Amino acid sequence: MTVVSVRDSTFETDVLRSELPVLIDLYADWCGPCKQLAPIVEEVARDLEGKLKVCKVDVERSPMIAQSFGVQSIPMLVVFKDGRPVGQHMGLLDKPGLLALVEPVLPASADELKPKDLAELLRTGRVRVVDLRDAGTFARYRIPTATNVPHSEIETRLGELQEKDGRLLVLYGRTSDEARDLAERMRADGAEVAFLAGGFLHWESDGLEVERG
């Protein structure tokens, strides 16, 4: 999905009446940080096609929109759901941060677990958790009881993931991307597998237990 250019005259149709949640990138052509953010916004638009509508607003060409948001600094990101603003961020943001900003409004995948849901399943011993990050990062901090199968070794260690012991297999990486893709691939082959929404970053930001050392 391409990023949609929105102006004062199209704001109601493109944003307020959108059936999908909307991310708005408010920018100006002269703004350096805006130029750094633009490719990240475009990448997120591609990754979340069908789940999120991504728009951009030139604040100099759309003064009414800029005024309605009280824009004092750019870049500024605003998230809309059901025609209402539900989140915002001012300043440059990396991809994990941007994904975390929009994650609350995205429709959940059938194989996606929220951090608090995974914590409850861990408490009752009903899941087998696999960390896809590199071994060094895993050794420093991880979700309790997790085992490590680095994503770079998946092809040679896929058999370990496919073992069945009556528990649901849950994958996680730093963010959702790698775990989601692998979970979808394994589910297509008939496996019962889920992935952690937002990855380890979301787990940690929710203040859930982390095993270290």
Overview of the structural elements:
- This protein is of the alpha/beta class and 213 residues long.
- The chain contains nine helices and twelve strands.
- The strands form three sheets. Strands 1-3-2-4-5 form a five-stranded mixed beta sheet.
- It is elongated, with a radius of gyration of 20 Å.
- It starts with a strand and ends with a strand.
- 33% of the residues are buried.
- Sheet-strand content, in percent, reads 15-25%
Overall mean pLDDT score? 91
Using the alpha-carbon principal axes, give the shape.
elongated
Poorly predicted sequence stretches spanning 5 or more consecutive residues: none
N- to C-terminal distance? 42 Å
Number of strands: 12
Give Rg in angstroms: 20 Å
Counting H and I runs of at least 4 residues, what is the number of helices?
A: 9
Strand order of the largest sheet: 1-3-2-4-5
Instruction: Specify the structural class.
Output: alpha/beta
* Estimated helix fraction: 25-40%
The main sheet comes to: 5 strands, mixed
Order of helices and strands: EHEHEHEEHEHEHEEHEHEHE
